[in-house]
């Protein structure tokens, strides 16, 4: 269950990052409320995952999912630019997530 909690927490991190962007500096009510809700849900699931997973593994995977997911959402839904350097950076983060997952004892 810890791995499921961790991956859902990472997915929720992408959602709250998108909502934070949509809140325009917390000046729009519903995206702001959504940001706070999903931050709390993401942190809550991360804390549950950390009961069974090592800190370094859990935090690295959580932030990696959030970083790559936010990058992908920005490109696909917000029209943010993609270039070779950004693509390589995202690929390296994914490689780090995979290596961290494979190296975990949990």
UniProtKB/TrEMBL annotation:
Q: Where are the transmembrane segments?
A: 33-53, 60-79, 85-102
Topology term for the membrane = Multi-pass membrane protein
User: From the Swiss-Prot or TrEMBL record, what is one GO molecular function term?
Assistant: transmembrane transporter activity
Kindly report the protein's main subcellular placement as a broad class.
membrane
A Pfam cross-reference name: Multi_Drug_Res
Q: Which residues form the signal peptide?
A: none
Give the PANTHER family listed for this entry.
Answer: GUANIDINIUM EXPORTER (PTHR30561:SF0), SMR FAMILY PROTON-DEPENDENT DRUG EFFLUX TRANSPORTER SUGE (PTHR30561)
Matches recorded under InterPro entries: EmrE-like, Small_drug/metabolite_transptr, Small_multidrug_res
Q: What is this protein called?
A: Guanidinium exporter
Family according to the record: Belongs to the drug/metabolite transporter (DMT) superfamily. Small multidrug resistance (SMR) (TC 2.A.7.1) family. Gdx/SugE subfamily.
List where this protein forms a coiled coil. Answer: none
Organism the protein comes from = Pelagivirga sediminicola
Q: Tell where it localizes.
A: Cell membrane
Lineage summary: Bacteria, Pseudomonadati, Pseudomonadota, Alphaproteobacteria, Rhodobacterales
Q: Does the keyword Transport apply?
A: yes
* GO cellular component terms listed in the entry, alphabetical order: plasma membrane
Tell me which UniProt keywords the record has, alphabetically: Cell membrane, Membrane, Transmembrane, Transmembrane helix, Transport
Q: Which GO terms describe its biological process?
A: xenobiotic detoxification by transmembrane export across the plasma membrane
């Amino acid at each position: 269950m810890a791995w499921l909690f961790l991956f859902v927490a990472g997915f929720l991190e992408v959602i709250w990052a998108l909502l934070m962007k949509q809140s325009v500096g917390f000046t729009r009510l519903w995206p702001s409320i959504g940001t706070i809700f999903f931050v709390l849900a993401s942190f809550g699931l991360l804390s549950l995952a950390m009961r069974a997973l090592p800190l370094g593994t859990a935090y690295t995977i959580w932030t990696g999912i959030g970083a790559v997911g936010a990058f992908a959402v920005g490109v696909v839904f917000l029209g943010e630019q993609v270039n070779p350097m950004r693509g390589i950076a995202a690929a390296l983060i994914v490689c780090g997530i995979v290596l961290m997952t494979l190296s975990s004892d949990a």
